[in-house]
Specification:
The chain is mostly helical. The chain has one domain. It contains 4 helices and 2 strands, in the order ααββαα. Strands 1-2 form a two-stranded antiparallel ribbon. Strand 1 and strand 2 form a beta hairpin. The protein is flat and about 55 Å long. The N and C termini lie far apart (58 Å). The relative contact order is 0.09.
């Protein structure tokens, strides 16, 4: 195994073990084992089945990224409930709206300056 592969293997193992602490072993192992190209032992140790390490790491990150918003929302629910029903927790939607607004403003400036 190359030095690069060993570095990524250690990073993946560390990430899996941290997720096991946060999400629990069962969820983490299911999610990590969904990633094609790696094997994951019950203790969270990662191993590569494929040489395309960057693609594997990208797929690994995407597999866990999908859990972030629901997890944050669930863990913050007691705090949100304390604030009352008038408060909504949609940081992703607000961020997307803000980015879209900025994009539209930039395009408008570019069109105006080209006239």
């Amino acid at each position: 195994m190359s030095d690069t592969a060993q570095v990524y293997q250690k990073l993946l193992t560390d990430a899996i073990r941290k997720q096991m602490t946060i999400l629990g072993s069962q969820i983490t192992l299911v999610k990590a084992r969904n990633v094609k190209g790696i094997t994951v032992a019950d203790d969270g140790t990662a191993g590569f089945l494929s040489e395309n390490i960057e693609e594997i790491v990208t797929n690994f990150l995407e597999e866990f990224r999908d859990l972030s918003a629901p997890l944050v929302k669930k863990t913050m629910q007691p705090l949100l409930s304390a604030l009352g029903t008038s408060t909504t927790f949609t940081p992703t939607l607000k961020a997307k709206q803000e980015a879209e607004k900025n994009k539209i403003e930039q395009v408008s400036k570019n069109v105006t300056s080209n006239l």
